[in-house]
Amino acid sequence: MSSSAVVLFDLDGTLADTALDLCHTMNVLLERHGRVPVPDTQMRSMVGAGARKIMEKAFEATGAPANEGQLDGLFEEFLDYYGDHIADHTVLFPGVLDQLEALRARDINLGVCTNKAERLTHQLLKTLEIDHFFPVVIGGDTLPVRKPDPLHLTEAVTRLGGAVDGTVMVGDSSPDIRAAEAASIASICVTFGYTDIPAPDLGADHLIDHYDALPDALKVLRPDHF
């Protein structure tokens, strides 16, 4: 194992099942603005690219699309309400905590790369009591770019003191896998996350159905580091 080994994680749909709280927040906003709520099953596929994208898709699904000015105002409403209800129903996916503890015990460098606002990311990680695993967090507003831009990942690797050739990105949707590919970073896609494209079609280097499969996947992808 090399000290340059890095595992980067997406948050929503990858580490944590956040869909119910995100869906509830979006439906509160829709009703405030005279729209009908979107069923949770339909809303899940809208999650994963950040709050602004959720709002954009939800308004398109319930009537006239929101313009940029409306989205700017809605974004602040979304953040305020969601911040007050960030983990009413959110839980870690099965096996996450065990794997984070195992990786930390081996001194693997861990980071979070999410399109969620950085402030809310820190808040959620702390609420879920996993913030201490992640010395580096890159949110959707940390840099001038966000996933699928590869800088979103490579900046995290740099801050962790790692190396791209020893890094694996774990995600659940297209922005995660595209960012990893553009950065020449190996990728693992969880099959239980939020995506409107079937996980096997996203082009990840490896798929896992449960976090128990993570150690073997890391060894396959980066045998010199894991």
- Total number of helical segments? 9
Instruction: Tell me the strand percentage band.
Output: 5-15%
Fourth CATH level, the homologous superfamily of the largest domain: HAD superfamily/HAD-like
Average pLDDT value? 93
What class do helices, strands and sheet pairing give?
Answer: alpha/beta
Looking across the biggest beta sheet, what order are the strands in? 5-4-1-6-7-8
Radius of gyration over all CA atoms, rounded? 17 Å
Largest sheet: 6 strands, parallel
CATH architecture descriptor text of the largest domain: 3-Layer(aba) Sandwich
N-C termini distance:
5 Å
User: What share of the residues lie within helices?
Assistant: 40-55%
How many individual domains? 2
Which word captures the global form? elongated
- Return the CATH topology of the largest domain: Rossmann fold
